[in-house]
Structure formats: C-alpha cells, structure tokens
Amino acid sequence: MTDSSDEKDFSLAAGFDTPPTDILGREECALDVVALRALLEQMASDPASEACEPDTDEPLGRLGDSFADDDVLRVYGDVNTDGGAACETLVVAFSGVSPGVAGVSRHEFVGVCGRSAGEVGGGAVAMLFIRDPSQSWYLRSGSEAGDDGAFTAVLQIVRREIALLCPKRIVTIGASMGGYAAVRAALMLGATAALAFGPQIFISPVERTALGLPHMFFDDTLHVLRPLCDAAGVQMESLTSIAPRCRTGQPQPLVLELHLGGDCSGDVKEAALLREALCPHASPRAAATHSTGGQGAAPVGCPEGGAARTRRVDVQVVVHAGLGHALAAGLRAANGLEPMLARMLALECG
What we know:
The chain has a single domain (4-17, 27-345), classed as Alpha/Beta hydrolase fold, catalytic domain (Rossmann fold, 3-Layer(aba) Sandwich). The chain is 31% helix and 15% strand. The protein has eleven helices and eight strands. It has helices at 4-8, 33-45, 110-119, 152-165, 177-189, 205-210, 219-232, 239-242, 265-278, 327-333, 337-345; strands at 72-75, 87-94, 124-130, 169-175, 193-197, 254-261, 289-292, 313-321. The N and C termini lie far apart (44 Å).
C-alpha cells in the first residue's frame, strides 16, 4: 500500500511544506518481531541474490562523487572557533529525498533547528546541515574499509566539525532518507541523541521485499540505486546490521527517538525491528505509544533490563495516529517539531 500523500509531494518528508491534505485510514498491523528477526538472520547466512547489472543510463559516478561544498551548510551562531563561545551542542541535520525547488536538493530543518536552539539556554549551539543530491542514502564508493563502510565519506565531514568545535553533545535529526542517515551517524559517532521521522531501517530492495514491507514512493529510487551499488561494490546496509558496530565507551546512553505515522504500517514494522536489534531482551513487540498529531506523546524506550552493552541505547518509539510517512509536516503544522528538538538539545551529557 502506497502512501499517496508522499507520492504527490516528496518534499513533505522534510517537514517544511504544507501538511498532507489526505490522510489514509488507520491500518493496524500485528507484528511478529521474532519471526521477522529470524527471516533477517536467514538472509544474512544465505547469500541474498546475485548482483544485478545497472539497467539505467544514469552514470555510476553518482556513488563516486564527493560531497560538494554547497552540500554542507554550517551555522555556528554564537560559537566562535577563534576563542569565542565554546560549543555546547552540535546539531547535524540530514536531508531526505526531497528534490526541492526545480529539482535541486535542499537543506532541511534549517528553520526548526534555529528556533529550537534559541529556546534552549546555557550554551552555544552549532548546526551542520548536509544534503545528498545523488539520493543514494549518503553512500559513497571507495570507502568500504572499516566499520563505517560506504558511509565513511559523510562521517568524515561530521568528524571534521567535531574536531574543530569540540562539542559536549551531538544531536542528529532527519526524515525518511535523512532519518536513516541520522540514526546511522548517531550510532557510529557516539552522539547524545538522534531524532528520526519515518526513517528507513532497511534500504536493500531484497530485504524490503523479503520483509513484506508495503511499497513506498522511495522504493523506486532504491531499486535504481541497487544495481549501481552492486556495480560499485557498495553495500546497502540496514541499520539492524550496523547496530552491533555502534560506538561504545560513551559515558551517557544514546537517546534514539523514532517518530512514525500510524497510517504507515511499513515504517512501524521497520522501527520495531531496529528496536529489537538494539534491545534484544526487550518485549518482542513494537513497543510504541500512540498520539494524535504528535501532541502529548510519551515515548516508550528499552527497559532497564535490556541487553548489557558497553553503551546503552535507549530506543523510544512514538506512533502518531492519523499521520503517514510524511509526519514531519504534520508535526510542524501542529507546532510539535520544535519542542521535540528543544528537548533533545536540553539533554544532559556525562
């Protein structure tokens, strides 16, 4: 089942345009997370499928292109790298698959991040906005070595900012494709918190089909991307496979908030599987709270008795009734986005 509001306007996933005009009927889905996890384990032990050749005229260079200077927007605010205010928090926002104006990808969450930072006192906030015009889920070829895999190139951009600013805390944010990047970056960088709206947990079309996930507008892009990745030797890794490699040794837990539209059963299923991967001893179901329009939602995270980890990851899943994959737009319209991010910025670290 396709979320028609997303097909009409990809840019809604960014949370900056008008909210969805047609809301799909609520679709309840009973999840057997244990069975789904078993399926993923079987796929991991059995070679998925043979690599396929690109059937598109699009150049393979999209995975070999470096991030351009204008793909990265830096907003330092009161932070001064030459002896000014010390950086308390670095916010890293990743753009989704929105084509933006005239087909040009744009930076997302710029306004909401700026306003949220203004609501939080007690320290200077620097902001880093990254976009991926290639719509390749921030994957790049030629950087497969090590735990970061094909995600190395974008992580290097963030790590340079960390080395320059020395922030006390790092908060990542993103929607859809940007949500995938926000969660992956948070796991690999030792972030304080991550805020993701309808993130893809699985980006391999083979895995998505095997899991029976409903077709979404971005699946067409993933199907085009797959043969390009195969040809370039780039792995389309799921966040569940990356979870065991998350950076350890951090004094504080990673607070990972996944916000999902109740009308998008596939997003809910994916979030349940990520929660299971990060908290394998939690209840084998999609632990989530339900809210209307994003107001009054109290997130439910992994219980204290979760799996022992060098660094705990508190996964909090919130399902917003009446919203679809493009829930960030609806939350923004209901004035729900800024309080969420402001709460993340106010988290204590250490």
